[in-house]
Specification:
- It is a single chain.
- The protein is globular.
- It is 0% helix and 51% strand.
Length: 115
Amino acid sequence: DVQLVESGGGSVQAGGSLSLSCAASGHTYSSYYCMAWFRQAPGKEREWVAVIYFRGDSRYYADSEKGRFTISRDNAKNTVYLQMNSLKPEDTATYYCAAGAYYNYWGQGTQVTVS
């Protein structure tokens, strides 16, 4: 089975930074087609944050994250990262990573709290 495990969440003051990791296992990493980060705040729908494609290394971000968040990957570690800078209280959410052309696979989430 494919497993995605997020880590790196925590509490930070506004303006601070956090780096999230998503470690993938159970499948050929490069076959995932893409990996993405989503987030869900209490009482709100899950929203897409960023995606990275394994062919061509294209990266895309939601408008509200452009210039603040950076998605990257380390193929040797089968891990995708989300570097989050200039965090705002509205970034508070549970962050999930997802993999596959149709986001077939999901991690359990990691909590980010910005105060």
